[in-house]
Amino acid sequence: ISSNSLGSAGFWLLGPGAALGSSYGPTNTRLRCHLGLQTPPLCELVVGGEPQCWSEGHCLLIDDSFLHTVSHKGPPDAGPRVILSVDVWHPNVAAAERQALDFMFSPDL
């Protein structure tokens, strides 16, 4: 999703001992694709109460509109968890709805 402010892409790092508190994504119109680039042991993502794990070289597709938490409980020498995150349209969002969302959430507004 590059045509409105609901989508983003970027590299996300999380150091050993770090945790991100519980949160909800801003919308259920997108899914997040996480490509594991560096995934030390004891890194966990819990989405809607279901534990998920990253794997290097593999994608994990999540709906971040559900309550989710992220943690890296590895030792200090484990290094950071690194992922590439890319937002994509949820498959249940119709083309007309996408067009309306692009208009409502234009990055130029």
Automatic annotation (TrEMBL):
This is Aspartyl/asparaginy/proline hydroxylase domain-containing protein. InterPro entries: Asp/Arg/Pro-Hydrxlase, Asp/Asn_beta-hydroxylase, IPNS-like_sf. Gene3D superfamilies: B-lactam Antibiotic, Isopenicillin N Synthase, Chain. One of its GO terms (cellular component) is membrane. SUPFAM superfamilies: Clavaminate synthase-like. The keyword Oxidoreductase applies. PANTHER family: ASPARTATE BETA-HYDROXYLASE DOMAIN-CONTAINING 1, ASPARTATE BETA-HYDROXYLASE DOMAIN-CONTAINING PROTEIN 2. Keywords: Dioxygenase, Oxidoreductase. The keyword Oxidoreductase applies. One of its GO terms (molecular function) is dioxygenase activity. It comes from Hippocampus comes (Tiger tail seahorse). Residues 4-91 form the Aspartyl/asparaginy/proline hydroxylase domain. Belongs to the aspartyl/asparaginyl beta-hydroxylase family.
